[in-house]
# Entry
Amino acid sequence: MPTPSSPRALLQLALDDLSREQIFALLDQVAAQVDIIEVGTPLLMRYGVEIITDIKRRYPGPKVLSDTKIMDAAHYEAVLSFDAGADYVTILALTDDGSVTEAVRAAAEYEGRQIVADMICVPDLPARAHQLAALGVDVIAVHTGVDQQAQGRTPLDDLRELTDAQAGVPLAVAGGIARETLADYLALGPHIVIVGGGITGRPDPAAEVAHLHARLTQGLS
# Structure
């Protein structure tokens, strides 16, 4: 299994607005071609952390990310996902340092588990990235939310800013990425590329995963 230090970017499939039946029908086709399966916040709200356990049991190869977007009670909430089998748990970078520290502490209690800091709505990205790195987060995620995308914003400039900041932590990027825009992001060297609607919103999601997987595996932009 690749890690965020791999020479190629990892492909993270974000699952947000699908039913259980749709999730498993898709993963039956594509699980072998994705590095990380993201259990999105809407799925957690709809099905609870049990969906994490179900995915891990059925697809033992890929890592699973629980997009909890933790803001408070960080140790307790992170443990809920780690106990369910999550490999990664997200915390909002906007929360206080104490919560970040508690999430990192929770990850340390489980072998190989990691904390991803979601940078959505952070005003000073470079400064917060360096703070988060010092607090021990494992991955920093550049994230332009759906509502921000509707206003024409993309994560590309934010990724460029964080790449230049060189905080020393692997970077993930999410927010409207699809095959048509992939090259722009890969040019900046992210460690993880997160694609949701660019896969699940297409007529043939499995074909989209195959296409993206091939481009990342071959190191093509």
About this structure: Confidence is low (pLDDT under 50) at residues 1-5.
